[in-house]
Design brief:
Elements: H1 6-11, E1 14-24, E2 33-38, E3 45-50, H2 58-61, E4 65-69, E5 75-77, E6 80-82, E7 85-86, E8 88-90, E9 96-98
Antiparallel strand pairs: 1-2, 1-4, 2-3, 4-7, 5-6, 8-9
């Protein structure tokens, strides 16, 4: 494992946002949802594609707070422009478990 500096860590903007919309993404190579995540008034609503359909339904996701990287450049994923990266961890079976705050925090709050 390579060590990074505190300055390297500070460059990554990991922020909390609330999932406000979930749509099917039939064009994706692997099963995925199209998400819209509200990161608060300073960052706004960002779009993302997330391969999390194994563990999460649309109903599970709506209203959930998630942790996302908001300062990657936009990336074209099929027909959508992804504007953030929703984060998570692989479980033993290879499904993604979302990174979420234990308690509700303001949208846009940054991981410290």
């Amino acid at each position: 494992m390579e060590h990074i500096t505190w300055g390297d860590f500070e460059k990554v903007h990991l922020c909390v946002g609330t999932v406000v919309d979930v749509e099917e993404f039939p064009e994706a190579r692997n099963p995925a949802w199209k998400l819209q995540v509200d990161f608060g008034p300073e960052i706004g609503v960002r779009k993302s594609s997330a391969q999390i359909t194994t563990l999460y339904s649309k109903e599970d996701l709506l209203g959930k707070q998630v942790v996302g990287v908001v300062n990657f450049p936009p990336k074209q994923i099929g027909p959508i422009m992804s504007e953030c990266l929703v984060t998570g961890f692989y479980d033993k079976a290879g499904a993604v478990v979302l990174a979420m705050p234990e308690r509700e925090v303001p949208n846009g709050a940054r991981l410290i």
